[in-house]
Amino acid sequence: MSQDASNQSPIELLDRLVSFDTTSHKTNVPLIGFVADYLTGLGVEVRLIPNEAGDKINLCATIGPKDAVGGIGLSGHTDVVPVVGQDWQTDPFRMTARDGRLYGRGTTDMKGYLACVLASVPMFQARQLSRPIHIFFSYDEEIGCVGVRPMIDQLGKELPMPDVVFVGEPTGMRVVDAHKGPARWEVDVIGRAAHSSMAHLGVNAIHTAGDLIGELRRIEDDLRQNCRDDRFDPPYATLQVTKIEGGTANNIVPRFCRMGFEVRALPGLDITAISQRLTDYADANCLPPMRAVAEEATIAIELVNWVPPFAATTGSPAVALALRLAGDNHTEAVSYTTEAGLFQAAGAASVVCGPGYIAQAHTADEWIAEEELLRCMAFLERLADWAE
Length: 388
Prior knowledge:
Blueprint: H1 2-6, H2 10-18, H3 29-41, E1 46-50, E2 57-63, E3 72-77, E4 96-98, E5 101-103, H4 107-126, E6 133-138, H5 148-153, E7 164-167, E8 176-179, E9 181-190, E10 194-195, H6 205-226, E11 238-246, E12 252-253, E13 256-265, H7 271-293, E14 298-306, E15 310-311, H8 317-326, E16 332-334, H9 340-345, E17 349-352, E18 367-369, H10 370-387
Parallel strand pairs: 3-6, 3-7, 7-17, 8-16
Antiparallel strand pairs: 1-2, 2-6, 4-5, 5-18, 8-15, 9-13, 9-14, 10-12, 11-13
Helix pairs in contact: 2-4, 4-10, 6-7
């Protein structure tokens, strides 16, 4: 396999990667198996980090001196978002090339980057690297950067700790040194059911949820006014109620209501203060009238996922190196989220830079320009020059 592997272009590899349906609710094991076979065929040692169920796997591999510490990490996720409900003109899991564009689910977000990294391995091996280059491929990024966390927990222990991590999310190969981070809550309201003709005997959980939504709208207004940074678009932290469900029938006072909300936090925003403000509002304004009718009434507010915002440290070596390799002299901030903040929190200076544009991600007929892959390959070749 090594001869075939050494001749595979990023487009050929992207074709194979797209063919694996790695929608987040499905397994990524077949894709990781392909990547592991490809790398071992080139003589690269691969380490696999499965989840407890064994249906999701992270992959780590190192090219270059094995006794050297630090080095550069190239990080990307293997999962993609669903295609259900989207009107595709091509098969989303079969790459289609047309007019310089490569169509397929994940071509931009972010299998195009994975393909470039894999296609660059023979080039990395041909160099006399003085610094190791590490590959980190993760799962379940699209549902809250869930899968990468067990791998990050092993950095500096069972796995190498890089000095710098490049996260290859689509930036058009521009250098991104800051992004927002999503915090997601679930709120369960439990009242008391009653016949709708005797509504005074019940506690309407949906009505209470409506009161809580009113407070969330006030929090949203405060964030818009008081938590701002003009580098971002939009230039403030956003809050959205994202789902709500409850009720049984039109003639029953609903006992239960569940809702979810999300904040896209700017770096430095105190997430715990938002939880506390909503809890204080519920305790002061919602629970007393509920419990006057039903002592068992409750409101539970739980933070269910938190991906920290990312802001590169002042003088970050990751940003300096990325700017040098990209031939650029300025950085950007984005409102979407990556794994960069998690790597940085673990002690690896991080930066975001990868092929493609976020506007094409998650859409029907997702595509990446062939030119973007070439630009990424050139970036990685300059990385090899530096590491050599």
